[in-house]
Amino acid sequence: MDEATVPSADLARAVEARLAASHDDIVERLKSFVAIPSVSTDPAYRDDVARAAGFVAERLRSIGLADAAVRPTEGHPVVTASWRGAPGKPTVLVYGHYDVQPPDPLDKWISSPFEASIRDGRLYARGASDDKGPMLIPIEVAAAFLAETGRLPVNLVFLFEGEEEVSSAHLEPFVAANREALKADFALSADGAQWRADLPSVTVGSRGICALEVTVTGAAKDLHSGRHGGAVANPIQVLARLLAGLHDDRGAVAVPGFYDDAEPVTEAELAAIAAIPFDERAYLDSIGAPEGAGESGYTLLQRNWVRPTLEFNGIVGGYTGAGKKTVIPSQASAKITCRLVPGQDPRRIPQLVAEDLRRRAPRGVTVDVRVEHGGAASYAIPADHPGLVLSEDVLESVLGRRPVRVRMGATIPIGEVFRRVLGIDTVFFSFATVDEDYHAPNEFFRLSSLESGLKAWTRYLARLGERP
Amino acid sequence: MDEATVPSADLARAVEARLAASHDDIVERLKSFVAIPSVSTDPAYRDDVARAAGFVAERLRSIGLADAAVRPTEGHPVVTASWRGAPGKPTVLVYGHYDVQPPDPLDKWISSPFEASIRDGRLYARGASDDKGPMLIPIEVAAAFLAETGRLPVNLVFLFEGEEEVSSAHLEPFVAANREALKADFALSADGAQWRADLPSVTVGSRGICALEVTVTGAAKDLHSGRHGGAVANPIQVLARLLAGLHDDRGAVAVPGFYDDAEPVTEAELAAIAAIPFDERAYLDSIGAPEGAGESGYTLLQRNWVRPTLEFNGIVGGYTGAGKKTVIPSQASAKITCRLVPGQDPRRIPQLVAEDLRRRAPRGVTVDVRVEHGGAASYAIPADHPGLVLSEDVLESVLGRRPVRVRMGATIPIGEVFRRVLGIDTVFFSFATVDEDYHAPNEFFRLSSLESGLKAWTRYLARLGERP
């Protein structure tokens, strides 16, 4: 019997068995992968990011994808590989990212962020959940198919970027310049995350993002706060006032024009969100928050999924060490990101915020606003997309329960980029879970999710291979 | 001729000549002194602070003060020494401090902060101007008198503390416990600083100080700003709003009760300030500030000298490294100090600020305010104090111009402590200059000020010795 005619369930079973037998090897590879501190936001880690790209390309070559390559961009490199040996079958663009968030605050990690530690069925390391564990899954699944049958059930193009944590700034030009090579029927993303550990879900939309940084400068140097206090402006005081003015008393963003282009949320969307089982208290307990907060007039999930936000990600100025230092700092600065909803332009919004900050700058200081390149618009997949429906079927078969459709407060820029540049939609098929503390100390990835993910990707590709 | 009958001018000339001949040795001793990083605010430097105390005591012993000793307190030690061989002559309590401010931001120092570098007649090092250079002067002058004549013109008690930069928290109990040993007619402070490099001045009053730190805590851990943004409070947003509310639109402190006990500034005081030659633009240029700012309705000098302030000395929260990190931090905090005027209680004021912050704390966060111990009240010397008038006469003889009387925006807690606990006033006789970047990178001390200071202290003690 030719491999191509093996029923997909039998094929999947054989590949799943092979993957189960390789479990320890796969975990070891994940450990090696997370040991590379590929922090994309900090130039100090540039070589490590490159090293992680090399690790991915080498693994893709070793499983039999001869064209695997580290492809330079103006930022961190992209890794690509392809297998197109199934003419007439669908072609899927597999997406993931090998870069990670910074590990700080380091003192809050129980084990070293770049040395995997397995405790209670969880692999702890920076990047384990976002996105090294999840992106390793389709590679390992492809490896198992190739080892088992010498071929894949569908055509695959792998695209792994190294700038997801910095808004995928150079992904779009790369995709645009490689349209033909990346040609596919749809994208299947290993990044995205399950909404809850106890409730299977598929993500059908994500918010966009834009980022800026504001710096207030007073005197040219730090001043003694007694000698000079009262004489000149205090940049922290000015910054606090500027930031406080970005929200109104109801918690809404006060920047003129901020909401102008945001598409209104439909009644149907609001009803769908209301229908999702959600224990607000349990959620708040899970993150240790005393209560919910934010824009009034919306539920917690509505605020998080379908309302735009303006968040402060960092602030610093003056003396921040132990004890006190009686100084008026020369500068104080804050990092800001906005999460965007459909209609909001990631290039226009930060300009509106910047204009508002500059307009309100008082005398005695200079206010510099630096808008970051590489924002991303919001994205939503059509409700009847066949790749989406297949993902729901497969998740139900693996997890025993039909997944709910959820939105995501976070941003995956690729959805919007792939649609605009390649004309294809993106199905999010990630096995990270939202409680895994990515972007925080003690990030972890459940080994049970690794197993579910390997099964699910196997069945997904096998069943997709049945289609013409 | 007995030494005691040598005319003071001749005696001073001989001692000045001896000091001039020792110039290089004195500079070397200052270099050794500033090489000890006696940063009192940071526990990491505890041993260095103790080492600096030992250095001072050893020097005092070596010049012939056998009772020189490092005296423990509940904080950093005090160094004392005395010479009481001139019965019937005045007794002066000489004050200075051997602790220094933290050196950061380290990257802004041109030469290493704890390795003296002499450039253009200035000795650059942390503590060179505040207060190691100035406090070395009376020691060197006493050394020269003792070497020249075997005695001093007046009785001296030396008191050098190690906590001036942390509000002299343990000085008052030490002074109270050593009232008899410290008994003197008045105090002469080597700390205090000349107001301007080009205009001799004597300081007749200083503002008080109190300190507190506010910490806003939201969730128990840092959160992904996409995943959770909009759902829960952002501690930086809350902190900015709390801090912004501490001043009103006119730049005045908005804390209820803040001004209630502040004694009104008299017309005479305002007129005296107006009579002082002051080039506001030159001052602003000297610190690189675009313009003055602060409480409206007052001139720059009035705001700085006789109006209380609430200053932010440091703020930190979230990600502050290079690039961006999409995080909602668990915490954000700010350091605050207030400068106080006569009437304001350094214990009551921070409680008022703390109450205001706590009262305005919104839902979804906890607001912790820690009030620092060891504040200090404002101080002013009586206008006709003989020690003050002598300081003016001596400065005129050394610098060729009658000094103006100025106030100080900064705090020297000893003025108020010595008056309250010992019943004596304090004459500020420092040769630091306000532009010497203490509390900032590249602190320096003018070698010309070292020479002027050595002459002035010599003449001051010689002339005071003429008095019964």
UniProtKB/TrEMBL annotation, chains A, B:
Domain Peptidase M20 dimerisation intervals: 204-364
UniProt name for this protein: Dipeptidase
Top enzyme class: hydrolase
The enzyme's E.C. designation: 3.4.13.-
Record-level Gene Ontology MF annotations: dipeptidase activity
NCBIfam families assigned to the protein according to its UniProt record, in alphabetical order: PRK08201.1, PRK09104.1
Record key words, sorted: Dipeptidase, Hydrolase, Metal-binding, Protease
SUPFAM superfamilies xref list: Bacterial exopeptidase dimerisation domain, Zn-dependent exopeptidases
Gene3D superfamilies to which the protein is assigned, alphabetical: 3.30.70.360, Zn peptidases
InterPro entries: Bact_exopeptidase_dim_dom, Cyt/Met_Dipeptidase, Peptidase_M20, Peptidase_M20_dimer
Source organism, top-level taxon: Bacteria
